[in-house]
Write a structure and sequence with these properties.
heterodimer; A: mainly alpha; MetI-like fold; 15 helices; globular; disordered C terminus; B: mainly alpha
Amino acid sequence: MSATLTSGKGVRPPGTADTAAPRVRRSSPLRRRRSIAAWGMAAPFMVLFLVFTAWPVLSSLFMSVTDIKSRDLQNPFAVDFVGLENFSTVLSDPLFQKAAFNTLYFVVVGVPLTILVALAIALALNTGITKLSGFFRVGYYMPVVTSIVAVAVVWRFLLQPENGLINEVLGWFGIQGPDWLGSTTWAMPSLIMMSVWRSLGTLVVIFLAGLQSVPKALHEASALDGANAWQRLRNITLPTLRPTMLFAGVITGIGFLQFFEEPFVMTQGGPLNSTLSVAYLIYNTFGFGNYGVAAAMSYVLFAAVVLLTVINFKVLGERDDAAGPRRRWFRRAGGAS
Amino acid sequence: MTSTSTATATKPRGTVGSHLGEPQPRRWIYVVLGLGLVLVVTPFIWMLLGSFKTNGELRQNPPTWWPQAPTLGNYQELFTRLDFPQFFTNSVVVAVVVTVGNLVFCSMLGYAFAKIDFWGRTWMFRLVLATLMIPGMVTLVPLFVLVSNLGMVNTYFGLILPFLAGAFGVFLMRQFMQGIPDELIDAARVDGAGELRIFATVVMPLCKPALATLAILTFLGSWNNFLWPLVVASTEDMYTLPVALALYSVGQNSTNYGLLLAGACVVLVPVLVVFLALQRHFVQGLATTGLKT
């Protein structure tokens, strides 16, 4: 909100410009006019952005240290400051711990799995097949554009124990498939399976682009020196792909940490809360009207997003400095927030 | 990979280079990729076929692949008993307005960020960029409080306004516009054109690829958006498609399989058709957003 007030300085009328001169490096009427134009062009976006994005982010932080509930909407003065009480309530709540564990499970298994499968597909597509390459790429990318809600509805039927397609196919091989979504053991792997299926395509495209920067000459030289395909993959391709992997890890991780639609449609968090995610718990807490607690939870989730990004940089970012603008971009985005 | 290595190792030296420069397509790679593709595409085909089956057939064990008695009954029910035309309209209205808004606002700010050196540019850009990583859940509660204080719960305004100015779009447009030569803009300035005119007549026509990408991604994001419409739309006449589908699938229609599959088709098929028609833009767009800078 305060930012809109300072905007007044930028569009100061020409008469008062001499006082503003030290701040502007080269103050000329032309320059000032350009500055005014820039502020004019920025204004519509910035107003919407400050009201509907920046303010809620700050406001959420305020709420997380108050006992605000849904009924306080009519009576804002009934809200009390409670310090970090919400956070300690949240962190010691067994249900939150369960949700945090589930979310971690989903991320720790799902993200590397997505990366591995996508990398394998990208490497296969990069072996010089030209005929159907575009066709394959489009096919693998298809699930990415779809609504999670809709595909979750479809997958719920595919995963049915009695007459679902998946258990039917497993039956051909003599395997008795489990009651996927009805079992505390298999519900989460089912959601992970679907999420890997849905987010593969993005990473395939990203890895294919990354593979273009792998130096061919290096491959040829090392092949002449007798390095086999596996050695070349490990020592040439993967190190060159490091920044790409970092990018892939960060975007997939951020998405997976927030999973919500999948359990909402497929399991409602069950059975026995085995697929209750943090995002889902926030939604439920919000639904019960405990706004302060929900806000505190959302900041814990936010902290997890930041932490995951930092871990990604630590694991994948250190050794290679040739990452270029992409990496700086993320460092800036991560550092500022 | 193993077969590659043996092939490379046993080949006479002279052919190694040409083998790597233009690798021979290997049949097993086609087979593996083809099998993978079948796995990826099967759910869609099964959904489409299933939407023409009766509920009785969908409950059959073992499951059938082709509909035995194809019927349009599921779609009829969707469009007559349930209010899917309304949900469809809501989804389209919200997605179109959000897309147009983002195209206009993000490209204007993107131009200011990329090509005008003005006071406040740096901190503004940082502020916008900083919010890119913030989970939607963080703004959910205060945004709902704000929107309900503004009296916009269960209205188009409530569904649309929070998404009209996306940080991602600004980033995308700025990146693209930085690639436009400064000389071009300076020449227009020397000729006496104002910034708004330069933006509209010089820069925007050059930005068509970026605008196409932003339009596609924004529309898609809005079409598939679930959490916010779920919270803001409180009566059926304001539901968007994903909200309606999700609530039916967990509500009293949860065992009406045919209906739900037809509903999923209504949500997915338009998007898949558009995707297949414009797939080049999608893939290009992804490369632009992530990798090309």
